[in-house]
Automatic annotation (TrEMBL), chains A, B:
NCBIfam families the UniProt entry points to: rrf2_super
Pfam families in the record: Rrf2
Assigned GO CC terms: cytosol
Protein name (record): Rrf2 family transcriptional regulator
Length: 145, 145
DNA sequence: ACAATTAAAGAGTTTTATATCTTTAATAAA
DNA sequence: TTTATTAAAGATATAAAACTCTTTAATTGT
């Protein structure tokens, strides 16, 4: 596995996909999303239900229903998605999994690893979904499988 | 989970523990190691068997047997341990799990994430087990649970 | 040769992550 | 009010990770 769980990868891809596909009040269905980001539809549905319950994205049932994101949703940092799925360990945990690892009692990787974790936090926590999406809309970045 | 799998965390802790405990031809048993790093003994045994088969650490059976590391083992980068257990995805994979993500077809996180991955690679790949161990021996760092 | 000690190997079990399938509830449009 | 459409929810199923237990093999010292 990479840095994030597969579930979290799906979640982030789906969020970017929804952001990208639903300008101005439109919605996108689970089928389109799962095909668009190459993930199992039913599994992704569970993930999006979860994000929806937490208010990270929105959904509507019925004809022309689907998933969408409000301006408020778009202005959230990507870390909201990551923390909802993978928790905060990735931003806070010791590289060796030691509970007592701290500034005063550092593990052999502590200081250097902390710098890396901080950079990751800055990226994921400090950048809004909207701004990642702008690069997508500009064609500067891509979600191609 | 943090950045590394739990199995990988055990492996790294065990390697540091062995390095720390076996100066000059001594050996340390699985019981001592598993207690010292707070991991399940039988499970750790499997992990160390694996590392041993790959030549990352060494072992000897029988009375006064146990695990130890040669000078050559100590001079290896920590990445040998990580790659043996978790593979190379952590150093190479796309943050969103996209197969086609590349410089020419970057995902929304690509460039910033690449910088972070490179820093991680530099740390894990560019530092020998021995040099991490020196900080341990000097009491500058700790493996306390 | 024998007994004791230690890791290696084999064969599970349990837990968590990932994935699928079916049924229900909400909504919109005819 | 009926039908079609969509997400939500519930119930499993499968696979992978984490963990345990038992037996075997190698080595040492007596």
């Amino acid at each position: 596995m990479g840095v994030f769980s597969r579930t979290c990868e799906y979640a982030m891809r789906a969020v970017f996909f929804i952001a990208h596909r639903t300008p101005e009040g439109t919605r996108v269905g689970i089928k389109d999303i799962s095909e668009g980001i190459d993930s199992p539809a039913h599994f992704l549905a569970k993930i999006l239900q979860d994000l929806s319950r937490r208010g990270i994205i929105h959904s509507a049932k019925g004809p022309n229903g689907g998933f969408y994101m409000t301006e408020e949703d778009l202005s959230r940092p990507l870390s909201d998605v990551v923390e909802a799925i993978d928790g905060v360990q990735i931003f806070k945990g010791c590289a060796l999994g030691l509970k007592q690892c701290s500034e005063k009692n550092p593990c052999p990787l502590h200081h250097e690893f902390k710098a890396i974790r901080n950079d990751l936090t800055k990226l994921i926590n400090g950048t809004s979904i909207k701004s990642f999406n702008e690069d997508l809309l500009n064609g500067m970045t891509s979600l191609k499988k």
